[in-house]
Amino acid sequence: MQAFSLRDLEVQAQRRLDPAVYDYFAGGSDDEVTVRSNEAAFARIGLLPRVLRGAGPAELETTLLGCRLSMPVLIGPTAFHRLAHPEGERATARAAATTGTIMIVSMASTVAIEEVATAAREAAGGETNLWFQIYLQPDLGFTESVIRRAEAVGCSAIVVTVDSPTFGRRERDLSNGFSDLPPGMCCENLREPMNGNGSGKIRKIVFSPELSWKDIEWLRKVTELKIVLKGIVHPEDAKLALRHGADAVLVSNHGGRQLDTVPATIELLPAIVNAIDGRIPLLLDGGIRRGTDVLKALALGADAVAIGRPVLWGVALAGEAGVAQVLEMLRSELNRALTLCGCSSVRDLTPDLLQVRVVEELCTRR
Ligand SMILES: Cc1cc2nc3c(=O)[nH]c(=O)nc-3n(C[C@H](O)[C@H](O)[C@H](O)COP(=O)(O)O)c2cc1C
């Protein structure tokens, strides 16, 4: 069946997936206000294209923390890809590699990071662009062992998810009785080391309200990898991230799966842009479904965006080819949006392309 948009892909994926798995992927916490706001907020921002600028073909390439990207769209970390396709995160990594973008591998990946990296390397024919997402575990010794695994396979950044001091309450999952992975699948990155005291058993992820900026200081000392803080929404936290040596910040409300009624990330972006003031790269996720959404995020000051659910629809529909289709759709839409706006590059987008009233509203909100 033909698909013309990411939304078409979601409809098709929903038909294929077990309904409880679809709900796990699509759903959010509580009333899912934030899930809906993320997407709706992009639609409220009007574009004001420029004309007759002789911009020529648009350039989509960019660099981020030393990684070269064919476009400023990353694969955000999402758990459990094997629920969608037998190849799971291997398929996603191959698509990221052939598309020339970064895959942020979830700590809750159903394929071990070593195997994800092998798949990515084989598809890329060499160097890969993998970042590794972690939930800092109160057992710092175990956390360190996971970081060492990510380092050993060539991940170039650790993405610390900081918006999860406890688990969001997802009522779709509660009503479906969806709580654990089926037999034969597990979070392979949570396997205890076989040597020393470890038993090789799989740990459960601990979401800890004890975590603090001290733990980010600890992380800074144990690894030389770049550190990205994912889940910053408050400008004061953006300043603290700078002070604690973060190499980048990812503005995220976890796709509306943690605290419900956090505003749409695109509405939060301008205040974070002010706080960061160009000192480190800024990323955003949440509700990106169109090339115009990417363009709006970049025009408001993001260096790149990440996508979550659309990748899962791609995995569910056709594994590697499905994820590649998702990324290529966004590339083609972004390309067209840039040209229609009279822009020649993703690197020089500015807020004057957005409706003045909306920009003023967004920028004075905090
Ligand atoms: C099914 C699912 C699983 C997720 N798993 C993780 C995860 O393991 N770690 C994490 O930091 N974020 C996780 N996220 C959040 C995403 O990284 C991202 O913030 C969010 O999906 C972006 O919004 P979008 O889905 O609208 O693109 C998950 C999101 C979904 C939908």
Give short descriptive properties of this protein.
binds flavin mononucleotide, two-stranded antiparallel sheet, eight-stranded parallel β-sheet, globular, 42% helix, 366 residues, alpha/beta, TIM Barrel
Describe the structure.
Helices cover 42% and strands 11% of the residues. With 366 residues, the chain is α/β, with parallel strands linked by helices. The protein has a single domain, classed as Alpha-Beta Barrel (TIM Barrel). The chain is globular and about 65 Å long. Flavin mononucleotide binds next to helix 2. Flavin mononucleotide (FMN) binds next to helix 2.
Series of H and E elements: HHHEEEHEHEHEHHEHEHEHEHH
The residue ranges in which pLDDT falls below 50 over 5 or more consecutive positions are none
Radius of gyration: 20 Å
Strand count, sense and barrel status of the largest sheet are:
8 strands, parallel
CATH class: Alpha Beta
Strand order of the largest sheet: 3-10-9-8-7-6-5-4
The CATH homologous superfamily is termed Aldolase class I
Total helical segments = 13
Secondary-structure topology with pairs:
Elements: H1 6-16, H2 19-26, H3 33-44, E1 62-64, E2 67-69, E3 73-75, H4 89-99, E4 103-105, H5 113-124, E5 130-134, H6 140-152, E6 157-161, H7 171-176, H8 213-222, E7 226-232, H9 235-243, E8 248-251, H10 265-276, E9 282-285, H11 291-299, E10 304-307, H12 309-340, H13 356-364
Parallel strand pairs: 3-10, 4-5, 5-6, 6-7, 7-8, 8-9, 9-10
Antiparallel strand pairs: 1-2
Helix pairs in contact: 1-12, 4-5, 4-12, 9-10, 11-12
The protein binds flavin mononucleotide (FMN).
Flavin mononucleotide is lined by residues 24-25, 38, 76-79, 106, 108, 133, 161, 230, 252, 254-255, 257, 285-288, 307-309.
